[in-house]
């Protein structure tokens, strides 16, 4: 019986490649529901194009064609003007899970290495069709183009090249063509069009041309020619590491001593802090890293919690900036009023640095159009990327809605023509799930979201107050303009005198009314 059980175990034991795992668990890539799945595809392709172009110092330009060829069956063609992908890397980029350059402690739009390959996997799972890729690159000063037809071998987690040929290209960049079924294009708040619209507000330096399945052509022009500076990789703060992190560092470091490993792999770890750490733990940090025991690593982590460190370096955080957010809002929303703010860096959970940015737009095309009425919308972002799903559990939603908007002149936030923009910037945004659509309500982050939103809300209140005063002044001036001529004319008749020129008097009266309402000095 024991032998039979062992044989059954041997027969049933399997090892899954990353591709096989995500084939069985595609919801972990965000592919749940028809609308969401297509929006996630747009997200992955657009963010990869942005990252590639910006790293090469190129202003991103993307053209997207989405064609419907059957019920819930689409062909997506996505083309960018980035530096292109060298021929030998094309199968890895599009057909290998966990292959990429985003596994560092650096601010990034994406961090899992699953973007393009995840889209190819979804396409293959729903249609069985291969992916077609055209890549143009500059090699030794010469423009080269290659066209490949690929399929993903999920058993081996690698790409199979079905066809390959050299082609002429107009410039550098990548064009990818994918088939999808069981997805749906929608103009809803969670749809692909809205994702592009919000992306352009947070990335005003980009240009996107989108041809949708209904025949509409949308051109989102860039509002800025400034390419964002590239963030720098920064060591993690001591307060944010675990015992497992220290053991992992010790196994893979090239340093000979544990103390030198700590100073080179963690931020703000000086020789003085190393000495303090030795006094707190009693551990000889001159030992070899591989000799470090788990219990000692736990002691070090506990000691970190008792020590005081300088604020972590923020050179690795690149916010959008107040001016750029305002440009993006004006280009897309054409509001009558905007206000923006970028807060100073703060830390959460033991020293992880983050920055919160906020903006508010009022009037014009602000808010979301529901029927004939514009209602308030909360635009949530993390590292410039729109978060279009799971809004209810997000710290951004909680922070914005926690304000008493009546104090800022908004009696009913839900039905106000307002767009509220919030962007969380960090090397380690605390998401609530693998779908990365909702920010965890860390107390420090929640507090900064509230503070940033209050600042722009106060600016809106001042504008609305002046607007109301101007309206009242206009109404008062209209009364004067209507009745002053009548009174002067009748007075002249009663006095049997010639009617005087009253225009200077009228200007003075209406100006006085305006100044009184606005609380300004008559001498200003």
UniProtKB/TrEMBL annotation:
GO terms for biological process: DNA replication; DNA topological change. SMART domains: HATPase_c (SM00387). Belongs to the TOP6B family. Coiled coil: none annotated. ATP binds at residues 48, 80, 101-102, 110-117, 436. It comes from Methanothermobacter thermautotrophicus. Keywords: ATP-binding, DNA-binding, Isomerase, Nucleotide-binding, Topoisomerase. GO terms for molecular function: ATP binding; DNA binding; DNA topoisomerase type II (double strand cut, ATP-hydrolyzing) activity. Relaxes both positive and negative superturns and exhibits a strong decatenase activity. Homodimer. Heterotetramer of two Top6A and two Top6B chains. Its EC number is 5.6.2.2. Residues 33-156 form the Histidine kinase/HSP90-like ATPase domain. The keyword tRNA-binding does not apply. InterPro entries: HATPase_C_sf (IPR036890), HATPase_dom (IPR003594), Ribosomal_Su5_D2-typ_SF (IPR020568), Ribosomal_uS13-like_H2TH (IPR010979), Ribsml_uS5_D2-typ_fold_subgr (IPR014721), TopoVI_B (IPR005734), TopoVI_B_transducer (IPR015320). It comes from the Archaea. This is Type 2 DNA topoisomerase 6 subunit B.
